[in-house]
Write a structure and sequence with these properties.
Largest sheet: 6 strands, mixed
Helix content: 40-55%
Low-confidence stretches: none
Distance between the termini: 61 Å
Oligomer: single chain
Mean pLDDT: 85
CATH architecture of the largest domain: 3-Layer(aba) Sandwich
Number of strands: 11
Order of helices and strands: HEHEHEHHEHHHHHEHEHHHHHEHHEEEE
Length: about 400
């Protein structure tokens, strides 16, 4: 393997490798490794934060290693409690399966489907008996599980922790035993769970997996972890214009991570970009346009990227109103009773949820004929004309 290629595998989009020397030995041995990544279909969408790890899988996949995707149809019903301060509600199996199909469709926008082994947890947890569960739980103490940072925090604050949540790391760890994983991939918030898998393998006399830990990509605010619930995410299945516009909204401090973790830009070019940013010899907007174009091309195609850039330059930078704005007939009479602006934004497709709609309204980011609407008014009281949500989403109210 060329040295630069190996350096990219080991360093770009990588927070930590446990154990780095052991992983290097396996990489240099030429033996085909089984690369495990699991996902819980507790929500239907993937965002570019997930793409950091998926791109690493694809990179190693192209070197001939085997990607094994675990669909957590059992653990999704529990929901990974990492980073949460309250017990999660359990999902129904039908909702989990519906989310899983959407997730898989998006997963294969990045990873090669034909070279991926898909495994469902129900293959091994379906036949599990109470004896199997007791045997699994006997491997760890309560003190060990409570050492996980989020559990320790909740326990110290007298917040409830359900027994099912305590089981989660064990179930995820057992996946590594079931599929004989050589390397498992996850974000920094998954470190504890990955180490549990490594320890369970050793208890079974297996060679322990290596833990490939990726950094958590901040959201468009540049501060908090990218999350759909926080509204700071860029979904890989979103329209091209949305992806482009959201990338353009990231703070300048996130330009380098986006190039480094989410694109195939050569490392030497990224170093040149860093120099130009430090010397202020380049306009950050132009760098954002380039990385936005790259991401839209990856998740859609180059034609969509060019059109998205043209749309952004005309509407956001040039202040033009698009020609092809969709129309929306505002309900009246009985149909308008108790119907609020937030409902209209969701019904028309300008936002994906009433929560997102309310945030935009509160921020003054919803305008009708360039006048901000700062209250969640009844639709019957709204003026007709051009409705804009954020800087890129338009609707003609008639």
């Amino acid at each position: 393997m060329p040295l630069t290629e190996k350096e990219d595998v080991l360093n770009r989009g990588v927070e930590e490798i446990i154990v780095r020397s052991e992983f290097l030995d396996r990489l240099n041995s030429g033996q085909k490794m089984r690369l495990k990544m699991g996902f819980d279909p507790s929500a239907p969408d993937i965002h570019v934060g997930h793409a950091v790890g998926l791109r690493k899988l694809r990179q190693l996949q192209e070197m001939g290693h085997q990607v094994v995707l675990i669909v957590g149809d059992w653990t999704a019903q529990i929901g990974d409690p990492s980073g949460r301060s309250e017990t999660r509600k359990m999902l129904g199996i039908e909702e989990v399966h519906a989310n899983a199909q959407t997730y898989l469709d998006q997963f294969f926008k990045i990873v090669d489907k034909d070279r991926t082994e898909i495994r469902w947890q129900s293959e091994w947890f379906g036949p599990f008996t109470l004896t199997n569960v007791i045997e699994l739980t006997s491997k760890f103490t309560v003190a060990q599980i409570l050492a996980r940072e989020d559990f320790a925090k909740r326990f110290g604050e007298n917040q409830p922790i359900s027994i099912t949540e305590l089981l989660y790391p064990l179930l995820q760890g057992y996946d590594s035993v079931a599929i004989e994983s050589d390397v498992e991939f996850g974000g920094t918030d998954q470190k504890f769970n990955l180490l549990v898998g490594r320890e369970l393998q050793q208890m079974r006399g297996m060679k322990p997996q290596q833990c490939f830990i990726m950094p958590l990509l901040p959201g468009t605010d540049g501060v908090q972890k990218m999350s759909k619930s926080l509204g700071n995410y860029i979904g890989i299945d979103e329209p091209a214009q949305e992806i482009f516009g959201k990338v353009m909204s990231i703070p300048d401090s996130m330009i380098l991570p986006y190039y480094d973790w989410l694109t195939d830009t050569p490392t030497f070019e990224i170093k040149e970009i860093e120099k130009s940013l430090n010397s202020m010899s380049v306009n950050p907007i132009e760098l954002k346009k380039t990385v936005a174009h790259k991401l839209v091309s990856d998740f859609h195609d180059s034609k969509a990227a060019a059109l998205a850039q043209e749309f952004f330059e005309k509407t956001v930078q040039g202040g033009e109103i698009p020609n092809d704005i969709p129309e929306y007939t505002v309900p009246s009479g009985k149909d308008a009773v108790n119907l609020r602006l937030s409902n209209l934004l969701v019904d028309s497709g300008l936002t994906t949820s009433t929560g997102e709609a309310r945030r935009l309204i509160d921020q003054g980011a919803v305008k009708i004929n360039d006048v901000a609407v700062t209250k969640n008014e009844n639709v019957a009281d709204l003026d007709k004309g051009i409705l804009r949500a954020g800087r890129r989403r338009y609707l003609k109210l008639i």
